């Protein structure tokens, strides 16, 4: 990940692979309204742990901020505040877990477990009653998972399922803008992220924009197989990361 104990290899093949992964992730994000982190983060972690989670969190923050600004009239700020309180607690939990793990193998194992948890939550798909307590609890889980892997959407999706789409989309965008910023602040304060993470994020912006542009040609044509394809890729990547960590 972004910590200084990991080296960063920017070989040409890796640059091309990262660009393709980010571009495809943007297409998925546009088709599903979520899924960028769930697809991109595990694959980048397989390439090199130095590529996650901070660069992906930056991209997630950028895209969420744009969505929140676009739909700002539908944001429920009271819900964002409650969820963010849980998220910030989750950031602390995530940083604590990162302090416990040892080296690249430990990080790969923890990362893989968190990704598999995110996939399991997405597959379960069972809505949780929307209350202040459940919002704070899912915010905490989102913060823990998001700080370690940059994948924090699945827990919140469980409680926003079935709510008014415009309100859900706008409020979640605002939540993830604040939440990603909180995770980044925590990672930088703990020394798990540095300037190169920002540089990497900026380098990923062009393929991300290219993917968003290309997504308009896909429209809803592949909507039926986007989700299982996305979860399958993330699940396999999570398993490979766990296996790498156990070696």
TrEMBL record:
Keywords from UniProt, A to Z, are: Cell membrane, Membrane, Transmembrane, Transmembrane helix, Transport
Q: Which InterPro entries match?
A: TM_pro_TauE-like, TSUP
What membrane topology was assigned to this protein in its record?
A: Multi-pass membrane protein
**Origin, by domain of life?**
Bacteria
Residue stretches spanning the membrane: 12-38, 50-69, 81-101, 107-128, 135-160, 172-191, 198-219, 225-243
Subcellular location as annotated: Cell membrane
Asked if the record carries the keyword Cell membrane, the reply is: yes
Q: Name one Pfam family in it.
A: TauE
> What's the family?
Belongs to the 4-toluene sulfonate uptake permease (TSUP) (TC 2.A.102) family.
Q: Which PANTHER family match?
A: MEMBRANE TRANSPORTER PROTEIN, TRANSMEMBRANE PROTEIN YFCA
The name of this protein is Probable membrane transporter protein
Native source organism of the sequence: Hoeflea poritis
The taxonomic lineage of its organism, from the top, reads: Bacteria, Pseudomonadati, Pseudomonadota, Alphaproteobacteria, Hyphomicrobiales
